[in-house]
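not sure who needs this but someone in the group chat was asking about UvrABC system protein C from Acidithrix ferrooxidans so here u go. i didnt clean anything up, its just raw.
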Amino acid sequence: MINRIDLGTIPDSPGSYQFKDQDGRVIYVGKAKSLRSRLQNYFAPIESLHPRVAAMVTAAVDVEWITVSNDVEALMLEFSLIKKFRPRFNVRLRDDKSYPYLMVTADQLWPRAVITRSPHRKGARYFGPYPHTYAIRETLDLLIRTFPIRTCSDSKFQRAAKVKKPCLLYHIERCSGPCVNLVSDREYAEIVSNFESILKGNSKSFVDRLRADMTKAASELDFESAARLRDRLGALERAVERQEMVGNPNDNFDVIGLCFDELECQVDVLVVRAGRVSGRRSTTVDRVEELSEDELLEVLIEQLYFDSPAELPKELIVPFVPTNTEIIEDWLCELRGNLVSIRVARRGHKKALLDRANANASESFRRHRLKRASDHNARSRALTALADELSLPIFPLRIECYDMSHLSGTNYVGSMVVMEDGLPKKSEYRRFKVSIEQNDDFAAMYEVLTRRLRRLNDANDDAMVDDSKRARFSYPPSLMVIDGGKGQLSMAYKALCEAGLQDEIPVISLAKKFEEVYRPNESEPIRIPRTSESLFLLQSIRDEAHRFAISFHRQLRDKEMTQSILDDVRGLGPIRKKRLLNEYGSIKKLRTASLEELSNLRWLPGEVGAAVYSTLHDLPS
């Protein structure tokens, strides 16, 4: 627990503060108008604190702070630190999926439109997010009939420019042909500008212009042009119809609907541009820290808009006004470069949209809670039973499992998989290349555990290690599981003893034959009932470690096979080698090819085909 500090040493100014645990990890980040006033609240008697705050203060051993000049800078600093350290006691925005955006690569000479789920490209402009990929694909297909912006990849664009021949999209009037200069820079820039304007909701002027051009062409008896304009007008109107009209053409706002309990919060955001609903986002938030409703809304606005790739709205419609509204508005103004207001809708179409967003959030949260109840209860029962059956000193919130894989002692690899709160945490998985050159699982296990524990001690002892890098190996497991029997377990325990961690990290092994659990220095196994949820949990992480090890071993083995045989063939570069393997499927099938067949491949020089045959059949070249 953190020691009480002299409050007089804490500055009475705005800033951000960070609580750290005994391993130096940042576990909570906060902000305050007055650091002194805020931090003194954490030094109240522990029994008077909220359980979540008490848990954080108990886990913390140190507190640091950074002062800034004003409240807006404090807010921005807080979010930057939360994003960097991902503290476990802060509210976390948890997207169940990545939403599709329509991106226009404005940083290129000839911008293109592309659908993406990774909105992190600098200089590009993003529109969305959209709830479904198929919806934006259909909209994009309709829009490029009227505004033929390119959608091809850069490699395809360069290939067409090299051969000076446009692709099929140009011939079916889905592209204006910038690859072969069939459109000028100015004309193409206008196409891109109009395309983006439609996505922002400004469609009326374009519809009126196309209708006037169509009428004029028909009156001049240019029926072919009139027909093309009619088709473009129809496509544009169908694309616009997909966006529901909910307000005035000048409306530019987001509506935030909420539904929450003590553990989580469901957020539903409706994106309204030019009076039309152009996007929707729904996500779940973990309420790790104790916050009031208006404080929670403040944090949600920060996390929703700090890294938003799309253009920020002029107005946010919210269920209630947060306490620090002026600070948040000033911060959003800096991000947008223009005024942003936050208000509660009381009547009219904005109130109707707010009711809809709240209803959407409520329905999504109802479904989520049903799933959460079943999953969370099962995991809690399994972890509790495991702690009881193994007599663990602490609850096994973090479990690490290790396994080895090899083929007759070759390509020896080890795997480390991690389970937190009973769920796999794949970002923490690690794999090891083992230096053992013979079939010795005991020595391999000892090497892997020694390396992992050395990195654990190094990460926590080295004060110069950056916290973002420290997190990779610095979290000690609550339980270490070894795939194997007593031999592997003894090597793991030896590594723990040499690292001085034998009293801090419990270790067990799970033998496959009878699914028996062994502990160090105990001859008799622990027989967990076959129907126990705790045994199923151990089997799950053991099987995951086995799968992860085998996949890495196969990857190395396949790479070695292709490299050792074909890499030395003179004239067979990586592109030819890849095509050769793609056509024949494997080295085994390639060996069945005759010398004549390999020498007569149209894309492969005859002497190279002969060299491939000689290498595969151990013949002198």
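also The chain has five domains: 7-90, 101-245, 252-366, 398-553, 567-616. if thats useful
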